[in-house]
Amino acid sequence: MRRASDCPPLEELERFVISALDLDSSAWIEAHRRGCATCKDRLAEMTRNHALERRLRQTFDARPDSQRLAIPEFRILRELGRGGMGVVFEAEQENPRRRVALKLLRCSRFSDERSRALFRREIEALARLAHPCIATIFSSGETAEGEPYLAMELVAGAPLTEHVRSEQPDLRRRIALFARIAEAVQHAHQRGVIHRDLKPSNVLVSAGGEPKVLDFGLAKILDEERVPGESQSVAGGLRGTLAYMSPEQTRGDPQAIDARTDVYSLGVMLYELVSGRPPYDVAQRDLLAAVRVIQESEPAAPSRFEREANTDLDAIVLKALAKDASARYSSAAALAEDLARWLAGDIVLARAPSGAYVLRKLIARHRLAFAFAATVVAMLAGSATWMTVLYKRTDGLRIDAESAGLLATEQRGLAEQRLVQQQEETRKNYWTVQFLSYVFGQAQLSKAGPKTLLGEVVVEAGRELDRRSDHPPAIAAAIGLVLARVEASLGSFAQAETRLRWCIAKLEQPGRAPDARDADFHQALFEVLRRLDRLDEAEAELSRAETLASLPSDDVELDRTRLQLISDRGRLALRRGDFSAANSALRAALEQQQARLGASHEDTLSTQTQLCIVLQDQGKLDEAEPFALAALEGYRELRGPQHPQTLNAQTNYAMLLLDRGRAEEARDLLAVTLEAQEREIGPEAESSMATRNNYAGALFRLGELEAALEAWREVATQQERVLGPNSLYTLVSRRNIAITLVRLLRSAEAEPIALDVVERAGAVFSESHHLCVRTKTTLGRIRIALKRYEEAEADLLDAWRVLESMQGINPAWKRECADTLAIMYELLQRPEDSAIWRARQVGEARPLRATLGRGTILRSPQGTHAKP
Amino acid sequence: MSSREPAPWVTTSTVLQRLKSFDDQDAWQQFVRRFQRPIEAYARKRGLSESDAEDAAQEALAAFAQSFRDGGYERERGRLSRWLFGIVHHRIEQQRDRMARRAPADSVAWSQLEDQQSPDGVWTEIWERSMLEQCVAAARDELHGTTRRVFEMLVLEGRSVEDAMSETGLSRNAVYIAKHRALTRVRGLLADCDEVD
């Protein structure tokens, strides 16, 4: 019998620490410890030492593998690598004698059932596969210590990443190599195996350039039972490599995993192969931020980083990377096939089969640009005969039939037959024009500067229209409207205005009664004039459109026009800076559009976007956010992620982020958006310029003032050239330049700019337009910095008087003015006056910004703190 | 048994205190020896080339030393490794930016970043490993004879107690005593790496 006072030997204490004693001995030591301070201390120390010993063993296990691992048939030669779960060795098999790769489940004595199950599954997955680009399994089993292993083909080669770095293959060879990888993945999919961890380091490329896909350690076998614990959430830990994980993988839902999950990972690899960089830099972010990036951010087009790439290849890569699995290639084979088409210079399926794209592709291949242009022009403007019936009302035809009814029955039958035929023809012609409108509508989606193909086609079509005098006026006007809309979308507002006025003149010819559909022409002219900031003229056109639209008509399309006109009232008010009026008109329009056109109709989304801008300008960010998100989601759904309207919505959402102080996120989103806009609609489109302006705003907010200044100078020069010196947006950018100069302590340079903006804004809009008033505040700040306090005081008090009278404006605008006055009086050592103005500005004034709306609408700017 | 003279371990507090004197080259060398490796390893993991990693480590160490001289380190606000991480991460991101700017736009600059760990996690792992290596090396230098051999056999080589008894001639209990003495010393050194008085 042991005496309680006898201290146990150290070995026994250690066994107690590692729980390797039987119950009786443990209980005895437990009792002993309570009475023995020495052993109590020893145990505490041994417990701490034991933890360290485990760490050291893991870090410095110096035993040679040949000694540590006893596997019959195999002799371990060297370690090749370690992964999350396993260690891979190069080994020699006895029979048949060959070098193999031997993979062991690491620390398998302590590994859980899940790891073992996954390892078993890898063995099963490999056993199903036989493809030259997938490493072959030879055998599997357990080591003497119970560690499972598998022996497989030893691939002598470099990981894909290293291969590309050392061999520097050109883009076409990189794509061809990748297509082989995609074929191997397709082979696995056909046998029910989803890899789930595709990444460059899991592909080795042999010296002969043949890729081998490895590591099916996380594979999913479609017809097999689930591994326990597989439905891991984000919080529960993700399996796989985050940078290559699809959005559905990051959501941790095993049910959502299918072949398209691998297509996404292939897309990430393809992106890297093309551009030399990952689509998202998730390594710098914490897990949840990285997951959000994967689920929400749109990657920049890879062609931005690789000269040899083009928009077709961009489309393939981005389709593979679509957030929504249903928008991706349905299989790795489909991806490989589209890449093969790209290599052959064929039409790729990733591109939406838009008229403009297909035609452009045909032209690129057949060099028939002129022939094409001529064909379209002939179709649009030349075949007047099949269009003549377009504007004939079936009402008229019905009257014909009823007149015929007075005749004999057989004659009535004949008349009715004629009616049906004519109705059919009308329908056919209607659709033909619809098609042409669609083709031309695509001009807005393509990189259509006035010098590009579609721009030329429009010019040519316009000339043809002018030349032909045999069109009935209504038909000529209808064609003119299509052309004018395309011209406006290309930024050629002056031509669009001229054309619309020509169309309206055609319609107003004597003897022709006004038609409710004529409202479309005035509505289009309103939009052009509004964009040209000729707001009084624009309002007159809007009123005319409203009057015409109220004429009786049974045309269902007219309902849409009428709702649009309500929304247009809001747009006009926004441009005038009347936020309260804009807010109520847009809300009224939105309510009706939602009810009658549906929440996802493009007009509804457009109004939603405008309302979001108004609310942001009013500083009501919480109210704005749901509209911003709804518009973004709606456009993504309706038009796809790269559509110009989606991109505008994205810019607006970025501006909301900026307003919320999330400047880095805003900057990143704006950069991505800008890149897409420059690709889709060209750098000089109004939307692209607006986004560049806003990007500069994000830089400003991040304190990168020199960079912001440079960006604004660039965009202001562009805007001046494209939109003219008096455009609201040109003036906004120039005011931003002045503000930045003040911040950079270059107020003398800023003064003439601010002064010019005040004068132009006053003349073009009004003395009480927010741009004019707020630039006066800026001017006040500049003059404080220049120590010309009297002038500053006059500017600021003037601005304040107007601001006080404005309704529904962002309170921050008043604050920035009051703040400046307070600072000025402080500098003038008039503390009482300063205190009065301090009391008026509570909270923080906010920096400058500008936002996109429907099509190409910039939001009004805001002032910034520019401490003198 | 090693024939070289064991280099005595100088506590991190002492190293840092001595850094306050700009002339103490020896202290600077000690300082660099202790912290350069993990910083460089971290920089390499973040995608920097060898020479860029070296530059970034030098800059980070200089900033770290300066900040310490200026009283920037407050013990209450956390461990040394966390404070150092803040400086290192910032420097390396700057270096990455510079790198990105000088890379020609049309070259294929292959990203090496496919590590799913956060920068924080990567740093922790590198820091711990580096400190562990340094402390084990220092402990081996300090320990002598059978104690050192027992430590090597049992902890580093994974050999059995019986093997150690037969090779060193020690009793079973003495083998355990030797092992724990060595482990306790390594723990002490490790704590010193991350705690500054």
Radius of gyration of chain A: 36 Å
**Low-pLDDT sequence parts of chain B:** 102-117
The total count of helices of chain A amounts to 35
Stretches with pLDDT under 50, minimum 5 residues of chain A: 107-111, 227-238, 353-412, 424-432, 437-451, 842-868
- CATH architecture name of the largest domain in chain A: Orthogonal Bundle
Name of the CATH homologous superfamily of the largest domain in chain A: Transferase(Phosphotransferase) domain 1
Biggest β-sheet description of chain A: 5 strands, antiparallel
Q: Main sheet of chain A: which strands, in order across? A: 1-2-3-5-4
Question: What do these coordinates show?
Answer:
The complex is a heterodimer of chains A (868) and B (197). Chain A is mainly alpha-helical and 868 residues long. Chain A contains 35 helices and 10 strands. Chain A folds into 5 domains: 10-59, no CATH class; 65-153, Phosphorylase Kinase, domain 1, CATH 3.30.200; 157-351, Orthogonal Bundle (Transferase(Phosphotransferase), domain 1); 352-471, no CATH class; 685-840, Alpha Horseshoe (Serine Threonine Protein Phosphatase 5, Tetratricopeptide repeat), CATH 1.25.40.10. Chain B contains 8 helices and no strands. By secondary structure, chain B is mostly helical. In chain B, helix 3 packs across helix 4 (80-102) and helix 6 packs across helix 8. Chain B has one domain. Chain B has helices at residues 12-19, 25-45, 50-69, 80-102, 119-142, 145-156, 161-168, 172-194. The A-B interface holds A 9-11, 14, 45-46, 48-49, 52-53, 55-57, 59-63, 68, 161, 164-165, 168, 199-201, 238, 240-244, 272, 275-278, 281-287, 305-307 and B 46, 93, 105-116, 118-120, 128-129, 132-133, 136, 155-158, 161, 172-173, 176-177, 179-180, 183-184, 186-187, 190.
